[in-house]
Amino acid sequence: MAERSDTFRIPIIKLHDKLIVSIQMALSDRLVMQLKDDITTRIERVNITGLIIDVSGIDVMDSYISRALRDMGLIARLMGVRTVISGLDPMIAMTLVEMGLDLKGVSSALNLETAIELLDRKPAKTRGKGGTV
Amino acid sequence: MTTDTQQLQTELGDLKTRLKRQGESLEFLQIISKTFVSLSLNDKAAICDTFNSMVSSFMDARKSATLLISADGDGYDVVSRQGVSDPEKLSGSEASELWRWVISERIARFVDGEDMGRRCPSLTEVFPAGFACVPIDIREQPVGLIVLADKVNGTEFSGEELEFMSAAAGIVAVTLTNAESHATQESLIRSVEQQAKEAQRVAAEREQALEELDQKLEIIERQRFAIQELSTPVLQLWDNVLALPVIGVVDTRRSAEIMERLLAEITEKQVRFVILDITGVEVVDTRTADHFIKVIKAAELLGSTCILTGIRPAVAQTLIEIGVDLSSISTLRNMQEGLKECLRRMRDLKSGDVEEI
Amino acid sequence: MNDTRQQILEILSGSMSDILARSVLSLSISWSKVDPNNLRHGDDKRLLVELEKGIRLYVRDDALQRTCMEQMQSLLTINGHTRPSPVAEPQIRVPVLTESDIVDARGIGRLVCNKLGFSGAMQIKVATAISELARNIVQYAGKGEIIITTLDGNRRGIEVVARDEGPGIADIDLVMSDRYNSRTGMGIGLKGTRNLMDEFDLKSNPDNGTEIRVRKYMD
Ligand SMILES: Nc1ncnc2c1ncn2[C@@H]1O[C@H](COP(=O)(O)OP(=O)(O)OP(=O)(O)O)[C@@H](O)[C@H]1O
Ligand SMILES: [Mg+2]
Question: Tell me, what's the ipTM?
Fold first, then answer.
């Protein structure tokens, strides 16, 4: 399996003024850490305004992964980049809520197109009292 | 040598025919069972009629009759017959005597013309060459019999054919038993239906008291009643707008069901707005409120905006009293207002204005 | 092959003609709407009721009737319960040593749920719970194991046991309470797991380590 290899990384694609990360596998903790580092480095190096993390291929979202996603969003925000999570599986969303988890600090979009649309609009308030992105 | 071979061949041919016949009987018995099951007959006469005509056609008998012991237990009623023009002969006292005798042994048998003529001369005219018959037993008690006579090809009734008749009689007996229990069930169902109608009537009255929505919503209002039974209907109100009218009591199980269905539909139809209408919810406790908040949160995690509508005054009061915090959730008066709000937000999305969630 | 249909026929034929045996069987099947070769829970009883009707109808001899019914009863109760289990292994043990074992454990859990016919939502809930428990083992105990057991009794479901011989949890009430502030994570793993599952049982002490037993039922 791909995530077994120590050298495997999740690809980060730059599209105009946005970074798009598409997670299409079960995430190990190592991959999550790696991704957090990679995103931070990329945001620093390239000039972008938005980050889209497509999670449609993720197997589960436990406390560790959701915390990492929230952290990525917060880090990006500090660097002036808004984050949108797209393609969350409905049953995973339900599990998150039942666990008592949320993704404060990042917005959600149904799919990649709406994610792009959301980022292209003027800055908007995100849910929760966590402030603006 | 040649005669031996010839004889063997005849025997083989004979065996083959018998085997084929056995296969046919089996198939036919299944057909009979299926027929009874699928017609779900529950009237005695109809059962016997169907049965009588099926068996006589399979046996190729010109004459057949199904008799049931009459209510007083003395005589026999001819419930069904074919090719027998004078049924009163079959139900006469002399004939009854004969039937009592033939079913006393509780097996399928053939009674030849001679034997019959001796016991019951009045039937000689009806069955000059005798008849085959089989008793119908329900729980070890004979309730009637089937009589067949006068095969089209003129042959005698074979042992296999008699066995077939036994099997067929067994089927009709089971069907008759089932019909009895069905009758009791029927009356039960009727009373349940009555109760359901009454409940529906009450619900309908309540329905009428509800506010009128615009045309599209009106249709839903009318449907709501019908879909009440169908657990949780998710309706596509508009492009990009789903509505979920929640009706009745929301327990843990139903709330999980509501959540799963709504979320699955949001993803499937990729809708941006959801109206959760709780006009039909009369009682709200902390847990119910908690369920709604969960649904709304989950929908928003997917990227869909949820609006709660139709909180009844009593419900609003309870919510405040038990201290449920709905402040982070958009709430509107009714579905109509909810839809208007969705349309307004959609317009804003298009014009690129700030989205206020 | 476990051909229950054939076995039923053989029993019936012991006390009635073949043709009768077949019609009794086909009738019983169509009335009970049960496929004898694919018995599910509770099916055996419904089929038995119909078969007994047939036996009572066709078998005249009392003693024969009784033996026939007894044979049928034991056949169906046995086949009804030893039906081929959807999961080959009723119990799977996954050693948890490294963080990649976390992914394996939850993947296996999900697969088992899938084979059991759990809904998509339930599969994810169980997998998420396993992920939390396995991660705690890696983070706090270093090594341990996850045992996934198929529950096949009167309530179908799945049991997950997470066991380790690590330092144990000093104050269970505290970590399960809302006021717990974790230094390593969000402190939501165990509480979340409890919310996701139907049953949650935590045993822990410094001498024996930690054992967490959770269950999720199908209904
Ligand atoms: N297997 C274990 N052995 C020892 N201590 C444990 C074990 N599992 C949990 N704990 C203790 O219980 C606390 C609560 O665990 P829990 O999983 O709920 O939260 P967390 O791991 O701190 O954060 P999160 O799971 O949200 O990332 C942990 O902080 C840890 O101190
Ligand atoms: Mg944890």
Answer: 0.85
